[in-house]
Amino acid sequence: MTKIAIFGAGLIGGSLALCFKGKPGFTVTGHSPNPKSVEKLLKRNVVDTATTSMEEAAEGADYIFLCVPVSLLEEYLTSLAKLPLKQGCIITDVGSTKASIAQCAASLELKGVQFIGGHPMAGSERSGVEAASSHLFENAFYVLSPDPLTPQEDVDRLADLIKLTKAQIIQVDAELHDDIVGAISHLPHIIAVALVNQVRGYNEMNPLYQNLAAGGFRDVTRIASGDPKIWRDILINNRENLLKLLVDWNAEVARFIDLLQQSDGEGIAEQFRKASEFRSGLPERRKGMITSLYDIYVDIPDHPGVIGQIATSLGNKKINLSNIQVIESREDVPGVLRLSFRNQEDVDRAAEELKKQYTVHA
Ligand SMILES: NC(=O)c1ccc[n+]([C@@H]2O[C@H](COP(=O)([O-])OP(=O)(O)OC[C@H]3O[C@@H](n4cnc5c(N)ncnc54)[C@H](O)[C@@H]3O)[C@@H](O)[C@H]2O)c1
Ligand SMILES: O=C(O)C(=O)C[C@]1(C(=O)O)C=C[C@@H](O)C=C1
């Protein structure tokens, strides 16, 4: 039996546990210092066994995943390094920053045990094991940041295990990782939170702001609902990169101030054109929660029962849906439904069927 120990089975740890649990030859153990959390993990069937004892969880483990908040990673790794771990055990983490934990690992004496930093580039604004899903990592990138001295066979061994999540594995140096995710993940979270708080201030004077906040505001601010403690830790840990990125952000804001002061319409349009061109080049199909590569989008009127009608008409034609998601839903205006299927044939059949009644974007 290959034993996988997960420390901190919340959104990410719980999702990993669900990817591994039940696979032949694997047993998954969850750890939490809190007996109630241990009980919850067992009750929700996320792990095979669970314990409040670090020693018990780590004993005989072939792989250990540290899935606790970033500020606790070094403490956990240091404590584990003092335990009699199984020879050949690989310890990895899922923290949103990689440089500090890599430095910590390099400073420890890990005899017969390897540490390989990791970071799945998938997640959600939700937290806790309640939000965990075995589909979370499908088609997402999963970064591994091994120390250059780590034997490649150990990296390959961990990568082989992680492939069970259906993520795409990529190796990135820890410092470079922090630089890049600062720009594409941490800075956007800061901007989303600052924007929501700016509007929250106006809304205190006039609640109409809240009522009129529509798709645009919701699209750019979903991530402002991220867990405050998780994000406190990430931002503090990556503060040096973020301080530089915020200087650049100020320059972007200043550019718009200037364009508006000059009433430079062509300059503003050029900013939108450049942004749109770059954004449309993003790998759209590699998304986290939605797993299928075969999606169609359907414009739907926002009235009760419409989703049921769509599901029924596909069911009547024996077309299997693998996922369904309301992307946008606003009162009185059409929303967008993302329907996911398992193969192109189902996509084509579903599009043909639904086009009879709805606007479909395949
Ligand atoms: N949220 C995301 O989108 C995302 C994506 C990729 C990586 N990460 C990283 O994954 C890690 C976990 O984040 P998450 O989103 O799963 O958060 P979460 O809150 O859902 O899970 C955190 C887990 O750590 C445990 N924990 C919290 N405080 C603890 C403490 N003081 N002692 C022991 N256990 C404690 C919680 O009980 C929970 O099981 C973080 O390092 C985060 O940076 C998050
Ligand atoms: O989709 C989200 O809600 C996320 O915040 C996921 C997200 C991101 O910023 O892309 C957040 C933190 C991670 O470390 C990796 C992914």
From TrEMBL:
Pfam families in the cross-refs: ACT, PDH_C, PDH_N
Sections of the chain in a coiled coil: none
Catalytic activities: prephenate + NAD(+) = 3-(4-hydroxyphenyl)pyruvate + CO2 + NADH
Domain ACT: 295-362
EC number of the protein: 1.3.1.12
Domain of life: Bacteria
GO MF annotation list: prephenate dehydrogenase (NAD+) activity
Pathways involved: Amino-acid biosynthesis; L-tyrosine biosynthesis; (4-hydroxyphenyl)pyruvate from prephenate (NAD(+) route): step 1/1
Swiss-Prot/TrEMBL keywords: Amino-acid biosynthesis, Aromatic amino acid biosynthesis, NAD, Oxidoreductase, Tyrosine biosynthesis
Domain Prephenate/arogenate dehydrogenase: 2-290
Entry-linked PANTHER family: PREPHENATE DEHYDROGENASE (PTHR21363), PREPHENATE DEHYDROGENASE [NADP(+)] (PTHR21363:SF0)
Protein family: Belongs to the prephenate/arogenate dehydrogenase family.
Protein's name according to its UniProt entry: Prephenate dehydrogenase
Annotated organism of origin: Paenibacillus eucommiae
